[in-house]
Structure formats: structure tokens, C-alpha cells
Amino acid sequence: MRAVLVGNQNCGKTTLFNLLTGSSQKIGNWPGVTVSKKSGVIDELDLEVIDLPGTYSLVPYSLEERITCGFLMNEDYDLIVNVIDVTTLERGLFLTTELLDLNKNVVVIFNMMDKLKDKGLSVDIDGMRKNLGVDICMISATGGNGILSLLKTIRKNINKDINKTRINQKIWKDFEDERKIKSRYDYIDDICRKNVKHIRKPKFISSFLDSVFLNKFLAIPIFLLIMFGMYYISIEVFGKYFSDYFAVGIKFLKMWTADTLGYARVSEWIISLICNGIITGVGSVLSFLPQLFVIFVFTSFLEACGYMARVSFVFDKLLKKIGLNGKSLIAFILGTGCSVSGIMATKIIENESERTNSIMLTPFIPCSAKLPLITLFVSFFFPNNGALIATSFYVLSIVIVIVSSLIMKKLFRKDDDELYIFELPDYQMPKLKLIFKDVKIKIIDFVKKAGTTIFVASIVVWILISFSLNFEYGVDVNQSILAFLGRKISWIFYPIFKVNSWELTVSALQGFIAKEQIISSMEIITGVSSEFSNIYEIFNTASPFGFFNPVTAYAFVALNLFTVPCVAAVISMAREFNRIGIFCFTLLYQFFTGWCVAFCVSFLGGLL
Amino acid sequence: MMLSDLKINTYAIILSLNIVNKKARTRLLEMGLTPGTKVKVTKVAPFGDPIGILFRGYELCISKKEASYILIEM
Question: What is the secondary structure of B3-59 as a DSSP string?
Fold first, then answer.
């Protein structure tokens, strides 16, 4: 038996879904799109439940709504559970009238009953039941009230023998008829006049909060303050704090494993595989978790309390001009700390092409892992105006984002972009328990999918570094497979740097694993270690990297900043795109951009 | 008078939606912005666009352009 949850966005449908299905829910994506598909089971009723994307009517205007309408039209289900936010009753009932026209089993849920008092309203439920002709349950999903009677009502209605035949296509024409729409609202006005009463003055909390958060002068500073707070706590506090403890923990784990296995006479290459391959690789995934946890908590809270909609309200006009969304700004700001966080934050953007663009462009914002690279090269080659040069990279990144976004906008125009309306929900205090539940699901999701792939990638890299072409183990990095590959493709970078340097190529390649590894790669190759000697020895004329001059140095930094991001970010992108075409295109575009920018720098710099 | 000209926090009644784009017009009707509905402008974004309007108990943001095609009377 299967039930579907249908309702407007922001009606509390998802909270109810989480409540009913608990840990049994599965999140995937609807086939071929980046929209989450949520299904689960209500154990008490042995009933499958699908949470369909929110929609305002059965005439779809967005990808999400097309999924819902398509499902209701073409798939099999036994019961429609229509969730309505009772504080926006009239609008919610519009969808209800259309659902009732489908001639399927319908149960209506009035959610957020606890908010009626604040609005100064009272609803005659029995009158409503009589007028609408369906069972109505009153609940408060966030408070967990009314759920038992909801389960009873579902059980009662699921077996009703209403005709289960496919829906007549003609009904769709009916839904689009403007006169019909107006007459639906006449009907709704009528039954609401009979059954909804204003019993006291409503509270105006939301409008007061908006007068602060959307104040002409305060809106943007407040936004920046909130972003700074989120960034600081997630990346500076949790990120750095935990990563220090984490690095120590990993070190100990490696030493302990190496000792134990060595004692057990396990062969050296297996020990290296486990310690330098697997533990390092898996550790790199887990090291993201504290930051991601904070990001998820913040974005979940800000979305649930209603602030995200305000961000759209303030910045949309500006950002839509270049094909992005007001909420993309949040992803970019988070991207200055870690691209993975930024990419994950794009989940909050509803419009598909804006979300896709945001995912694609977030890695162009220099993340904190790229900072050591910038610092090293800038301090050596531009000792007198280091700060200016370093800032120029950030300015350049903004230019690249704007230009790329405009290109994407021209290339991937979609009809959906035409219509611009969205709802500003009332502010509400989200229940922390529900926030953490939401966060838990997202974290487990990330670990499962990203963890497995990074695991494999780490092993592959380990193999490439540790073995020579003859599969001899324990060779100098000069003779590894990675160096061989480096030599084979160093011609790609020749036009930029005017040298065929496998050392440069290999270091850049290692940047695809983690941007911090670029410098450590250069250290390993030249034998210079920052712990024991002056790191600037790397640029000694006698060393493999002695060919660098200020122009090519800037080009090298640009090459690594504006190209394909680290494997963790690549995997996050893959997950969020869920379509191999866009994913491959993005990788190609990012590589191409990095190369082009570096080439232009090298070319123009050479002219000066 | 058009909705885009309505001053903040003043009420008006919708007369008709003269929006050419059928999709936009139908969607606004579905959202409840029907002739005869009482409406009020509640906020304007810092860059002048979009605007927030209150009707049927909730707030909707629409672009100033769309609002300029909606006929109202006081």
C-alpha cells in the first residue's frame, strides 16, 4: 500500500514525513534530475509513503512541480495525504480542490494548528469536513500533536474503495482554465467565510522582524554578519579545532597500525597501502565532517526559521542578472572556507539551472586550502606588494564567476526562469530536535556516497605514487607512475611556462587530490622540507622549480586556483549534479578555465 | 492604478491581471491573486525589486515588472 504526501512548499510536509517515517526513509534523486526523492515506511501501518515535492497547484511551473504532477497523474498510489498550513488556508485549499477532482482517496491534514492562535483565527473543523466532503485531521507536526488520530484516519481511508483507474487527461485543461480558477476561489471564499472566524488581533512578530532584517540600511550588514558567524564557527572553530586533534589522531593511528602490522611481519607495501593510502584517504573525508556538520545545522536552521527566503528577497535582483540566485551568495561565501561546504549549501536553491550554475562556480572561489599556495608564491615573488597581489586573486575569482555565469546563462536557457514569484513564510522558531534529525540524514548521506569514492581515489593515488612502471614498490617519486604520467602530459602546460616540467605537472596533478598537496609535492620532489629548512629553497635556480619568474609564478597560482577542485569537491559536485553530462562538462570547463587564465597571465605578463 | 504604484502599507482591491505571459497570469491566479482580493504592499527590496505583497493571509514576492501589469483600485 502506498500513500503520497502532497502540499504547498513550507506547509510542514517534510517535518510530518520525517515524523512518520523516522529512520526508515531513503533519500535518492528522482531519475535524471537533482531533485531529492524521499520515500519511507510508516511501520505502524505497514504503509509506504512518498513525499512529493511541494506544489501550489496541479499545473506545474517548475521541475519539482512537474515531478509531483507527473507522479499524481501516472503512478499508482492508494491515498493522497494533502497537508495544508492552516495559517495560509485559502491558498492551501486551492490545491485541495484540484486533488479532489482527481477522484482518488484523499485525506486532508490541517498542520500548524498551534499557530492559529497567534494569527487570531479559529476554524470550525466539522463545518469544514462537511463542506469539503473529506476527513480532516488537525496536527502540529513540529509539536508532534495529533499524530495518533492522523494514523487512525489514514488507516480508515486507505482501504476505501474509490475508483483506482487512471486519471482522465481532460482534467488538465480544466485546471488551466482561468474562469475555473476564479470559481474555485469563489468556492473557497464561501466555505472559509462559513468556517473561519477572526476571534482576536493577530500578532505581528514576522513583520517586526522583517522591518529589521529587511531594513534598507541594515539588511546587507546583518546578512554579512550572519555569514561571517557561520563561516567563522564552521571553518575557523570547528574546522581548525577539530582538524588539529584529528591530525594528531590520524598520526597515532598510522603509527600504531604500522607498528602492529610490522610486528606481525606483514609486507611493507601492505602497511604502506593501509597507512598512506587508506587511512590518509579516509581521514581526509572524515576531516570535513565537523565543518559540514556546522554548515548543515546553520543552513537548516536559517531555512527553517524563514531567513533564507529573505536572502533571496534582498539579492535576487542582482544575481539573477547573471543567472544565479540570491542564495548562491551563501554558497560562495562558504566556498572561501571550503568548496565542499559551499557546494553542499547550494541544496537550498530551488531553481535547477541557478543551482547547477552555483555548483559549477563555487570551486572558482579560492578556498582556505589554496591559501598556503598563494602565500608561498606571493611572498617570494612579490615581496613588496604581497597583500595587493593576493587580493587580486580574489578579485579575479569574482570576475571569473560573473563571466562564467553569464556564459552558462546564455548556453543553458530554460523556460522556468521566466516566472518570478516566491513566498515569504512567517518567521518561526525551528525545533532543534528536527534540525538535528535533518542534519543527521544529510551527514550520513555524505559519508556513504562521498566516503566510498574518496576511499577508492586514495588507493589509486597511492598506487600511482608508490610504484614504478615495472610495478616495483618503494621507488623514488622521480620514477613513479605518476611522474611518468607527468612527463607524458607536461606538454599541456608548456605554452604557459615555456618549460617541459614533469615536476610542475605532478605537483598540479596532486592538487586534484587536495590543494594543500601541491606544496607538499614540491617539497618532496626538491627534498626541501618546511620543517627543517627555508621553504624558499624550492625556488633556488638549481632546483627543478628554479625556472619560475614573477609572471609564471602568478600563472601557476592562477592555474591551480581556477581549475578543477580537489577530489572531495569533485565528488560533492558529482553528487549534487546527479547527471553525468553536466558533471563532465563542468570538469572540462574548469580545467579549460584554469589553463586559459594561466595562459593569458603568462602571455600578457610576457609582453610587459 | 497599478500594483507597482501602491504605497507601502496601503490596502487596495485587485481589479484584473493584465499580464501577457499566460503562465505568469495563471500562476498568480492560482496563488489567490484573483479579482476582488484585498491586497497590501508590505516591503520593497533594497535594490527596488522585488516587492512583497500581502493577501489571503500570506506574503508573496513578485517582481516590480509583474506588479506593473496588475490593475487595482483603492
Answer: GGGPPTT-EEEEEEE--S-HHHHHHHHHTT--TT-EEEEEEE-TTS--EEEEETTEE
CA distance A281 to chain B (A): 46
Classify residue A145 by its DSSP letter: B
Closest chain A residue to B65, measured at CA: A420
Which three cell numbers, joined as nine digits, stand for A572? 560533492
Encode pLDDT of A341-375 as tens digits.
889 888 878 777 888 999 999 999 998 788 888 88
CB distance from B58 to chain A under 8 Å? Answer: yes
For residue A324, give every residue at least 6 positions away whose Cβ sits within 8 Å of its Cβ, in sequence order, or none: A354, A357, A358, A361, A405
- Do B66 and A421 count as a contact with CB atoms less than 8 A apart? yes
Of A469, A389, A355, A441, the C-alpha closest to A26 is A441
Amino acid at B66: E
Q: What's the CA gap between A541 and A598, in Å, rounded?
A: 22
Measured CA to CA, the distance from residue A181 to residue B28 in angstroms comes to 10
How many Å apart are CA A41 and CA A36, to the nearest integer?
A: 17
The answer to whether the Cβ–Cβ distance between A419 and B34 falls below 8 Å is: no
Beta bridge partners of residue B53, listed in sequence order: B41, B60
Task: Say which residues have a Cβ less than 8 Å from residue A245's Cβ, sequence separation at least 6.
Answer: none
The number of CA neighbours under 13 Å toward the Cβ of A575 is 25
Distance CA A490, CA A562 (A): 18
Determine the pLDDT at residue B55.
Answer: 94
What letter represents residue A92's amino acid? G
How far is C-alpha A515 from the chain's CA centre? Answer: 21
Under the phi-then-psi rule, with left for phi > 0, alpha for psi from -120 to 50, and beta for the rest, what region is A510?
A: alpha
Predicted ipTM of the assembly = 0.95
Model pTM score: 0.77
- The torsion angles phi and psi of B56, rounded to 5 degrees, stand at 50, 35
Strand A135-138 and strand A196-198: the pairing is: unpaired
